């Protein structure tokens, strides 16, 4: 008796690509990583050492990888700029797709992936919002679903990176879509998840500063930004994104309901160790988002695989990724123009606040 | 050898008045509570039992109390509506004044108190922002002053009350000035304290909902509101105020600097007890702001007394109270109109965002 | 109408004496500190500056103070060696007595105070175990009393001082009775409080080391010691005392019952501040026991005063202080001899474990 | 190019056997689970569904499994009573061995495994003390190794299980060796790890009660026990083991050094969620040890595999397992007899405390 595994190819072998490739190779029992592609020679060298010995075929060209014999699914973990293009090509080649977030920094381009997927309803196409797979967020969501906090009404959520003194984020800002699209997209997705995917935005406003990286202004970005989002269903959310945390990654969320509150990671910790010295009692915290969400990514690859093999419904809809980008882009516009932006219930811009 | 004490009168014997009266009677060694006034018979009854036996003279009429022989200072702890009037009368009668916050819900009326005090520079006139006297806030402030967190850049602060199912807050909203003036005023004051009292507002925006008390809308108020304040010195603050916390009072502040962060009360606790049962590990938290800030009020009465007796500088300027009301009122307007409000550097309204 | 206050004299003006004197002077509204005594000139100088201006009469001789006109109660806060003697003299002079712990490092001498008090049942005589007046311990005790944790069965309690590199504790060990009598006495008292004052000891055993102060061995003492106490009512307690904490004072207690657990101070904190920097997230903790228990001492002076004035039952019996010293001295003996010590149900030494 | 994997067989498919089998099957990339054995039909049924489809050969007889073609290593995860026998057979069959703890409840039988392994120095034979593979314990150990806490001097460690009202532990006590051998063995192993594997015991003493399961006395066991261990190197450790925690599994360790302290799990938590309701703020905690140590077991299987394949030194010596059982058995004897037990430096019983 034999057990069939999902044959997966990984597009892109950069920071996240390597992680996805290894997760599918080693930590996704029902998947078999059969192929990987990267246009980058250094990345391919890494793959020769770490993937090829386990039978993974390497491709310099993504299109060639798509033709790999028996390939069933593709993980798109390349540069954001090619996410949508590669995802659409994979869809057209009849592959299931797990695409790193965001589909695109543009809501319109993001939508083209949804449109392509709509034509192939038998395929599993998912944009990987890692927090949806995190045990803590899921625990909070499940508790909310029981009615425990009454009606969820206010969300506070932040994605705050450790200060990287190398200035990496300045260069990165050219392509990231801005701090609300790059960071807060996770928080926005959480708001849509917890408040209901059909929550319609009424207004967005935002402020931001460049406290440590004035050069971010060249790319219409900020290193600290706060955004307010008002929904037509009587719910409100506020988001804080930052690039200058001293202690490490601080991704925190509170869901405040009419009868209670659920807080995720308001007391960050790396592990179970407390350190007592003459400065007091302290704990260390994760330094980067992957330290915090490593197992969420493993769960993601396993659940995606199970959905493909067993033809089960994906845990989140592809449309969610477009909604989140749309709100993130509006917040970024509000941040840069200083204007509050209003929407009517159909989602179109409106001149005035609807009271 | 004898030690002279500050002779104090307390105006108003409601919830806060009683506390102030007892604090000056029993917990302020250098002060002597000599008089108290209230127009309310029930309050006077209470005072007959609790204050009179210790030699405190009671007055039904505030103006009469002001003429009490030897009276040196007045604590104004009456209804907000008469704060300014009583404070000005006391100033004019040459008394030192400790006035409960806010001076008034109107910035203009608040300013009249400042104007009156300006004519009597020898008097000590202070508006009591209790958090300025709290050991935790002071510890955070002192640590910030050492440069420990670099340049303070972002403040998150919230004043969140326990849900009071009696609907008390609906009636109260008629006079409170709204949730930003009533609750967030403390957070606004903290922002001015930590960012510098001369911080000038560039814009304010706000959103709010009535999740548990729809009737608040009658009084142009909300039960949950979030406000954004942008300052001309490149700092930003965001405030959350709520009337619907399930666990108790949650007054939390984070001051985020370019090199570190200071958090006050992100892990609220009533005392040092942890309770382990089959629901997990839990701690109780203060139910009301006085549970949290009781000792801050005691410190306030003691420090005010010392400043009067020793002719020392007060720990906060009276002007601070006007600034805070001005920002609170603008946030409340932004909340109700849905509009983002802009200011020029002189503090006047402006039509457009200054980029 | 006048209110009568308890006229109190303070014996001893050393570290704790000063605190008690000031607490009765300034923070005990129903008491009036009328006298204080110390054989030490430096202490009397301090008193001239801080007590005399408020009408406190100073005495170099304790016996003279006892004759102070109208004196009603005495706080014995002198050196431990004279606690019992001074307490007995005060009792014989018909004064209410609040005596610092321990009555004596000797159980026999401690008992003489109880015997003296027994002859004057109209007097209030109390040994001040500060934790009995701490809000957290009281909260835990009250929760236990409701049956919340079922039957309390196991206690872990520790009294751990911050490392004092001056070697103070070596000199102090000559008179302290040893670490179990000096420090663990509080934990032992807690065990008797929570398990029932009539709990009878079945066995004690102990181990200890001198990790930082080898010279303590000269005085038959240790800088770290752990003791086990077994009671005849099927309950057990274990105590840890240390002189070498790096972060500060760590006085922690857990009461483990058949249905739940109550923990006091398992997460010590000085205040509500958390500090985020590149070493992680940290909080400071109290450095000395008075930082931790300051308000317990204030409550103690107020409750003692109320019991005297209103002829109410004291919150703890004087016998409790003898019981605690007896167990502490047995633990200290077990520590030094290395032997496990057994008792029969009458409290007499026994050669063998009773199984 | 091909990558060779370690061919592993799993002996025993009970609660822990299933976990080990799946860990080697799915979460140990460099291992290949090729065989599994169990005398129990129900366990074999489970294996038919969960292991056989992936090519795992099933055996009813352990000896037959040992002859499986190409088998390189055996995981002994059967009943404790057969651990030693199966381990020795595997050693004699020239297999690497990972044996669940304890090797045996008897120190003498445990030693026979060490003796067998000593004759086959080329084999990797390890007893799996899971905490040695836990990231928090490793972090604490590494911090200690840097000298951060000075000289480690005192250890407090506890293994406390959630109350299991089914009475399971009464039946289990027949075979477990008692609470100190079954539970505290982990804490004892930690003491030897942190204090040095060559730490020699000077004395042990213990007390215990049956607070919830009086029937444990039939099997010479207790449901709550506290043990003291004194070492000749001037270090002391105290252990608490319990079967009656209300909130869940509470395995906590503190390592107290002359300059600082490291605490592991003094604030247990299941995940990053805090729950706010009208009872306060609470977090849930792991319910069973596997919830807490799941990833430690995965690390264990991966590291054992790497040591076998790469001929690297195992992270802990087999002798450690005998030392721990020896101390555990002495504590259990002290618990039951009520006697303090002394050892000379050679490890032999001694009548008197050596001072």
Automatic annotation (TrEMBL), chains A, B, C, D:
One Pfam family this sequence matches: GFO_IDH_MocA_C3
Domain spans labelled Gfo/Idh/MocA-like oxidoreductase N-terminal: 6-126
Record-level GO BP terms: NADPH regeneration
Domain GFO/IDH/MocA-like oxidoreductase, residue spans: 138-262
Keywords carried by this UniProt record: Oxidoreductase
Record GO cellular component, one term: cytoplasm
One example GO MF annotation: nucleotide binding
Family membership noted in the UniProt record: Belongs to the Gfo/Idh/MocA family.
Protein name, as recorded: Rossmann fold oxidoreductase
Record organism: Aspergillus sclerotialis
Lineage: Eukaryota, Fungi, Dikarya, Ascomycota, Pezizomycotina
């Amino acid at each position: 008796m034999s057990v069939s595994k999902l044959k997966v190819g990984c597009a892109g072998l950069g920071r996240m690509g390597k992680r996805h490739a290894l997760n599918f190779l080693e930590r996704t029992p029902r998947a078999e990583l059969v192929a990987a592609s990267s246009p980058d020679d250094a990345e391919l060298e890494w793959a020769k050492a770490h993937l090829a010995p386990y039978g993974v075929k390497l491709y310099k060209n993504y299109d060639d990888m798509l033709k790999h014999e028996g390939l069933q699914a593709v993980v798109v973990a390349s540069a954001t700029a090619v996410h949508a293009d590669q995802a659409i090509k994979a869809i057209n080649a009849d592959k299931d797709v797990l695409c790193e977030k965001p589909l695109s920094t543009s809501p319109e381009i993001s939508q083209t992936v949804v449109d392509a997927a709509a034509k192939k309803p038998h395929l599993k196409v998912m944009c990987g919002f890692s927090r949806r797979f995190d045990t803590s967020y899921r625990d909070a969501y499940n508790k909310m679903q029981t009615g425990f906090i009454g009606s969820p009404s206010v969300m506070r959520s932040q994605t705050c990176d450790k200060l990287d003194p190398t200035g990496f984020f300045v260069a990165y800002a050219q392509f990231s879509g801005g701090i609300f699209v790059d960071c807060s997209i996770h928080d926005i997705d959480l708001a849509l998840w917890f408040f209901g995917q059909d929550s319609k935005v009424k207004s967005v406003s935002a402020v931001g500063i460049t406290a440590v990286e004035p050069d971010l202004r060249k790319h219409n970005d900020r290193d600290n930004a706060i955004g307010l989002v008002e929904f037509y269903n009587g719910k409100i959310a506020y988001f804080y994104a930052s690039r200058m945390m001293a202690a490490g990654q601080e991704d925190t969320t509170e869901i405040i309901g009419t009868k209670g509150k659920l807080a995720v990671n308001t007391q960050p910790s790396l592990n179970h160790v407390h350190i007592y010295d003459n400065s007091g009692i302290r704990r260390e915290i994760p330094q980067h988002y992957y330290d915090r969400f490593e197992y969420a990514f493993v769960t993601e690859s396993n659940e995606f695989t199970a959905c493909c093999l067993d033809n089960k419904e994906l845990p989140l809809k592809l449309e969610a990724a477009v909604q989140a980008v749309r709100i993130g882009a509006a917040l970024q516009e509000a941040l840069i123009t200083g204007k509050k932006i209003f929407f009517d219930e159909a989602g179109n811009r409106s001149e005035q606040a609807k009271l």
